[in-house]
Specification:
The chain is an all-alpha fold. It has two domains: 32 residues; 60 residues, no CATH class. The longest helix has 24 residues. The chain starts with 5 loop residues before the first helix and ends with a helix. 9% of the residues are buried.
Length: 101
């Protein structure tokens, strides 16, 4: 086995090596897809928070809820929309207490 190249070793161990290579390609593809799809997550979340928080500070929960519902493609938008929808009749002090823990 001293003179075997890498390709010869892969071919000689084909029953184990070929599936490992295939699964490695699939795994790397999934990792790159996740990185690509989440590339703007932080900036989009900060932008959405920067839009919703001043609206909430003014006491306009309805407008904040509308903004959150318009951004449900963003995971943070779904969270904001769900929390604001569930607590739309609560006071702003209560909502503030929810975020402090």
């Amino acid at each position: 086995m001293e003179g075997l190249s890498v390709l010869e070793m892969i071919h000689s161990g084909w029953i184990a090596t070929y599936p490992l290579i295939a699964f490695s390609v699939v795994t790397v593809s999934i990792i790159f897809e996740r990185i690509w799809s989440l590339r703007n997550l932080v900036t989009d979340t900060l932008e959405l928070s920067g839009t919703i928080c001043p609206t909430l500070e003014k006491g306009d929960i309805g407008a904040a809820l509308g903004t959150a519902q318009a951004n449900v493609a963003n995971p943070a938008g779904r969270i904001f929309a769900d929390v604001l929808d569930r607590h739309s009749h609560d006071s702003l002090e209560y909502l503030s207490d929810l975020t402090e823990d």
